[in-house]
Every structure is written in C-alpha cells, then in structure tokens.
Amino acid sequence: MLRYPAAFLVVFAGVAPARAATITVKPGDSYDKIESAQAGDTVLIEPGTYKFRVYLENSGTAANPITIKGKDPANRPVWDLGGQPISSWPGSYDGGDSNRGAWQVAGDHYVIESIIFRNCQDNIGAGLRARNVTGVTVRDCLFEGGTNGLYGAADDFVVEFCEFNNNGGNMDHNVYIMGGTFTLRYSYIHDSKSGGQNLHIRARQATIEYNWISRAGTYEVDMMSCELLCGGSGSSSVTMKMTLRGNVIVQGSSGSDRIVVQMDDHPGEESNDSTGTTTKMELTMINNTVIGQQVDMVVKMRNDTVQTAAILHNNIFYGVNALAVADDPGSGGFTRSGSNNWIPSGASASGVTGSIQGGDPGFANPGAKDYQLKAGSPCIGKAASVGGLPTKEYYLNETTKLQYRPRATAKDVGAFEHGNTAKPVGPHETQPPPPPPSDGSPPTPTDGGTVPAADGPVIPAGDSGKKGANSLDGGCSCAMTSPADLEALWLLLPLVAFSRRYRRGLRRAARLFRR
C-alpha cells in the first residue's frame, strides 16, 4: 500500500472550501453585521432589544443556507419598533417599499430562527417579508402587534414552531402570503385584530398542517387568487391548491358567518384581488378538528370565473350548520366531495358521504379546550383510508404549544388519535421515529419532515466526531489505496498552486519523493 507524506495533507487541505463564518451580534451593533453574512455563515444574535431594519440581500445555497438565529432560544432577541413607522428606523435599504418589513429577505436560502418581531407597523408592514425568493425557513419566532405578522412570497417557504398574535386589521392579517409555495406547521396562530384574518393565503400551493388556529378577527383561513410566483415560465394556467391537515381550528365569538373562505376574484371584495393565471382552486381538509360558534358554513365557495373544489375527509365539524356552501356562484362551477366527517345532527353536508352525525363528538374536556377524544367517542376508528393521512398531530393546546408528536395511525376522525402517548417534539429537538401502532398494524408512512438538532451537525453512524483516525487534525493514519489515487491528488494541485503556502508544500513534497 502506497502512503503519502504529511506534507501532502497540507497541500490537499487547500482544495477544501473555506470554513463558514460565525458572526456574533450584540445590542449596539448595526444592521451591517447581520447583512454581511454569506452562504454557509451563521449569525448569532445575543439577547436584547434591537431597533433597526434588516435587508438580507446576499444569497445562500440549498446546501449552505445563511442561518440567522437568537443565540439563546430561551431568551430570544427582540425587534421592537414600538409601533412607529417601519421606514422611520435606521436601515441600509431605502427603496420605496422599505416600509414593508422590519426584516426583508431579498436573497435565496435563509434560515431565520428564535427571533421576536414586535410592534412592526406601517402601510402593509410586517415583522418579516419575503421578496419573491426561494428557500426561506422561519422557525421558533414570535410575531405580535404588527400590521402584518408575516408577509410576502417565496418558493419553498417553510414556517414552523412559530406564534402569531394580535397582528392585522382591515386588509392586514396575522399571516399574509402573496404567492409561491408555502408550508406552515406546528404553530399557534391566534387573535388577529378586528377586520384581519389569521391566515390570508394566496400561494399557488399551500400546506397548513398540525397547527392551532383560533379567534380570528374575521376568517380563520382565507384562500384567494395567487399574485406572485404563480406559475413557471410560459405558464398559462395555475391550479391553486391548499391542504389543511391535522389542525385545530377554533372560531372566536366575534368571527364571521364562515370559518374558511375559498374564492376567486370577487368584484368589490378587495381592490387588489386579481385572478391572474388561476384557473382552478382546490381546497382539501383532512383530519382537522373545527370548532364553530353555530356558524352558517365551514367553507364558503366563490367561483366567479374559475372552478372551485372542496374535498373534506375525516374532519370533526362541531358547531356548524353546513359544510361547503356555494355562495354568489358564478361561471366557474364548483364541486364538493369527501367522506367520514363528524357533523352535528341536522347539518347540511351536500356532496360528502359517510357522515357521522350526533350531538357530541366525544371530546375529552371541551370546556378546557381539550379536544382530544375520550374513550367511547363516536369518532374513534371511523376515519376513511384515503391519501394524505396525517403522520403527526399538534401538541397540545393553547398553553402547551409549538410542539407536535408523531401519530402512528390515522384511524380516528379529527386532529387527535385516541390513546396517542408519543413524546412531543419542540423546535430544538430531533424528530423521533413514529411510535408503533398499539394494535400491531404497520404505521402510516412518514412525510419526510425533520427537525434539525439544536446543537451542531448530525454525526454519521460509526463516527464519534472526535479527533483521531481519518482526521486531518490529529492522529492521521491516512493511506492512498493505489497509485491511481495518488495521481488523482497530483491533478488537484494546480488548482491551489497560486498560493505561496501551497507552493512551498508542493516543493517539500517533491523533495521527499526524490529521496
């Protein structure tokens, strides 16, 4: 076996990419430090209150995103703009839309974690805005008291373990998504201001799953025509899709006559609505628990010019008089389908089959907002076996929040599986495998979602992560297995020969081989 000298390790190390930087930001530092981050860098923000705008123009990559997070998740840094206009605060960006977000993400591939955005207000302003980009993940953040909490559009826009509280107003909302693809999970969205909605979603594809959504100023969820990032190049039409899976949705006493609105551009409804290339709108609700206040309908379907479809499986619809109602029908047409929903006796369920009707779905303690199923519930074992069944569930209520737990089976109707004792998972824990079903049947397939570990990279099996064997920084016993491997190493050397340090290493290696 041919071994190469230690000098080659110095030369070979030169071909490795530069180490990512860690940037620490303290109260008193400016926005420049945050905005300087490059692909692969991590920005750690120390606890404290910050009062400036942030414009994130650099881009990471899918493999090496730019990560910006609170240094201590138990004491998160706070962006509190005191209700003063966002654009009046210091910042590097002074464009005409500088008022749209305390933080604006204008580059691709960011992870933003453990930040509080409070009192960020302005015309259509928000705590955080995505500016038609790709690959934005927001985790363990609180948005409260803003004109909007979260705003904008991105492809691969993921929000998880976040809380939205008391944002919105007339035409402003806790969450206002303009387009792209959007996923919201394991979050608590509640108490939007009067006139505002909890979720105002215009994404071409949205997945809203395993959340607690409650007490909106108007609608809990609104699905409207897509505006931005609505289709690929040359696209002439878009089918907008929204999936509501495994959510607990609790209507407030001051809510409207419907809980979810599915609609096309409705003349006079909002001046900025536009159908664009949208030709169909499809809403799927599966295994949600919906608590209404004797509301007229769960889903209001408006179809001025496009087809609308509502697909409802395995939901509990409590305190409602009808499921999906076509209101102000137009030329687009509508369809309603689904099966195995629990509905109150006498409620209208046109288009769906296999309804479980009664006066009590069998909640454990509804007075305490515990909507798990108690023994003997008519919803146990009554779920239809359909595509897209939940693999997780929200945990637990409005006090124990921002967690989920695996759901090994989905045999029960509603957001909770009776008898599930799986350990809950929070924003800084590694996702466990799903528990085995109690009846011995195989678990439902997982959906591939993972939660990164809180500290450091995942170490591959068989590697302790310690310095030693097969390491460049201690105890190396590296060996080339063939002359061909050594030849391949020589081919890499010209790439780094421009460096004086590596030229010296090359000369030293050559002398050793001539001996």
Structure description:
The protein is mainly beta and 515 residues long. The chain has a single domain, classed as Pectate Lyase C-like (3 Solenoid). The chain is 7% helix and 33% strand. The protein has a 19-stranded parallel beta sheet that branches. A ten-stranded parallel beta sheet has the order 3-6-9-11-13-15-18-21-24-27, with no helix packed on it. Strands 30-31 form a two-stranded parallel sheet. The relative contact order is 0.09.
Strand content: 25-35%
The CATH topology, please?
Pectate Lyase C-like
- Give average pLDDT, whole number: 82
**CATH top level class name:** Mainly Beta
TL;DR?
This protein has 515 residues and is mainly beta. The protein contains four helices and 35 strands.
Task: Write the topology of this structure.
Elements: H1 6-13, E1 22-25, H2 31-35, E2 42-45, E3 49-50, E4 54-56, E5 66-70, E6 78-80, E7 103-105, E8 110-113, E9 116-118, E10 126-139, E11 142-144, E12 148-160, E13 163-165, E14 175-185, E15 188-190, E16 199-201, E17 205-209, E18 212-214, E19 221-223, E20 238-245, E21 248-250, E22 258-262, E23 278-286, E24 289-295, E25 297-301, E26 307-313, E27 316-320, E28 324-326, E29 334-339, E30 342-344, E31 356-358, E32 363-365, E33 370-373, E34 392-395, E35 403-406, H3 483-492, H4 500-514
Helix pairs in contact: 1-4
